[in-house]
Design a protein that fits this description.
- The chain is an alpha+beta fold and about 400 residues long.
- The protein has four domains: about 40-55 and about 300-365, conserved putative lor/sdh protein from methanococcus maripaludis s2 fold (Beta Barrel), CATH 2.40.420; about 55-65 and about 220-300, Beta Barrel (Elongation Factor Tu (Ef-tu), domain 3), CATH 2.40.30; about 65-95 and about 190-220, RNA polymerase II/Efflux pump adaptor protein, barrel-sandwich hybrid domain (OB fold (Dihydrolipoamide Acetyltransferase, E2P), Beta Barrel), CATH 2.40.50; about 105-185, no CATH class.
- Helix content is about 25%, strand content about 35%.
- It contains five helices and 22 strands.
- Strand 19 (about 330-335) and strand 20 form a beta hairpin.
Length: about 400
Amino acid sequence: MRNVILVILGLLLIAGALFGAKKLIDSKTRIKPKSAKVIKTVFVDTVRTGTVPIMITANGNLTAKRRLELFSEVQGVFKGGSKLFKTGQPYLKGQNLIRIDASEYYASVQSAKSNLYNLVTSIMPDLRLDYPDIYDKWQNYLTNFDINKATPKLPEVSSEKEKYFITGRNIYTTYYNVKNLEQRLSKYTISAPFSGILIEALVTEGTLIRQGQKLGEYIDTSVYEIEVAIGKEFSDLLKIGEAVMLSDLNKSKQYTGTVTRINGSVDQATQTITTFIEVKDPSLKEGMYLEASLNARKAEDAIEIDRNLLQEGDKIFVVRDSILDVIDVQPVYFSEKKVVLKGISDGDMILNKPVPGAYAGMLVKIYQGKGKKTPTSDGKIISTNSKR
């Protein structure tokens, strides 16, 4: 009997402990306050469609349109001239760029000229006796022959007999040998074919120059061109002579160029067409990096917005009765930061700034800014009730 009483008391104690613990826990439970519904404020633009010009941007480095790589066709010691052969040295058209010592070769040319003169002189007695009708023109040739000047052209033959007589005396062979030597002698001096500047100098005065050695590089600084790659879908829009706006990386300077050449083939790897744009400006230098903007086409009934406002590639958010909605649009052209869209109705209110966590059906409030903007007709969206 005693054991039964003890068991009952133990069960009562356990039940009481559990009941007390539950009461204690329930007393510490706090009622969670209901969270207030947050309505985000958004910035919007009212759409007004129009004509949007599509500008194709491309970039590249300037190169001189006229350049000359200097190579030596003869061997000799580089002689100094009126100007030092140094990088950055300007030259005018016709000025000597390089002079190679040709004193030894010059002597051999003079010897060959003297030999030709002696041959012509030796036939003069025979001409006086056998061909008196052609004697005068050969005499005039000898009179005008100056060994210190370029060898004059031989007189024209007037008959087969004269031709055989002159050929038999080996005059033609000697004459063309002399002209060949004179032609090679002219290669000891390299003159500037146009006014420009030396951008690379690989030899200095006193250097022994060997045949085939590269001496430097020379460019015309008055005209440059830039090579850009344009997508093949715009190939039918590019035209020779079209004006192109060029700018530097900082957008601080702008230049006007002209399309001068368009490649006739498409690059198979990039599916682009190489286009060359000519530009002239005294401040330009070879190697400068420029960005070109080509006016490709115009999109009708379109708008231009920031690319970060486009959702899933073909959707944008609009505000209707303070609720966000998503509509389908038709992207026409993507630039680096902008996208041209079609398929939007006039009067639609679209976001002009991204909203974090935005979704269709989200309740929003339009920010009512001061100083509403006046609508324009340039084909771009206009702001009517937003502050940027």
